[in-house]
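Recall from the previous chapter that SMILES is a line notation for molecules. Here it describes zinc ion.
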Amino acid sequence: MSEASDNRTEYEIFAIRYGTNARRVRGQNFILETQPDEPQVLDFYYWVLKSGESVIVVDTGMHPDKAERHGHGILLHPVEALRHLGVAPEGVETVILTHAHYDHIGHLDAFPKAQFFMQAREMAYVTGPWMEKPWFRRAYEPDEIARLVHLLHAGRLALHGLDRTIADGVSVHWVGGHCDGQEIVRVRTARGWVVLASDALHYYEEYERGVPFAVAFNLSDMIAAHDRIRELADSDDHVIPAHDPRIAAFYPAAGPGLEDRVVRVDLAPASSTESR
Ligand SMILES: [Zn+2]
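With both inputs in hand, we obtain:
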């Protein structure tokens, strides 16, 4: 909770590592992988931004039923995790949805007062002709898409185009690639501009090697997103992927008992993420 001397809002950013899949192998993550059977853990995060009394939630984590169906483990119930941070979900007024995959929108109903924000392009994508194709619909759950339709018709889902400022110090930016409406979130912190890349980067490795993740709608947009992320973040150490186990290892715990579960990515990493 801090405000810079010139009254620019700065946020604390809590990355919540709520799930994991230790059975994942590299061949599931990377196209043309030379060691496809080598293990590569996939972790699951969502994020909470806090500045004073102001709270913005970025994605909502995965529902345990969907986790089970897709073979992932829940480490910390995403909604219960908020209470560890002193955040009552029923009081949250702003929730950004970076895209509509099941591991990001599993708890919409935990936020009864919230206004949700998402790319208009994502809504068109998940209710349009590409969903006829199993490849493109495989990370969406129709009951959750139906909830988005209900929220839209209740006036609680705002659909934006490309770039939008959500609050002073928080903006969202379309990149596409992973899905048609994938966006990233730029957040002002005491250490500068941090970019929550969400699934524009699952692992740091994509960014470092300039390679796409295997779950893709459009490979050219996915690769171009790396440049957009670099434009918006103060350095590569200010970039936060959505599924990399290294995040919990690099960044300080948000408090006692939260080690390896909730970390502060508005603070500097313990070692440079660029020198791994
Ligand atoms: Zn994801």
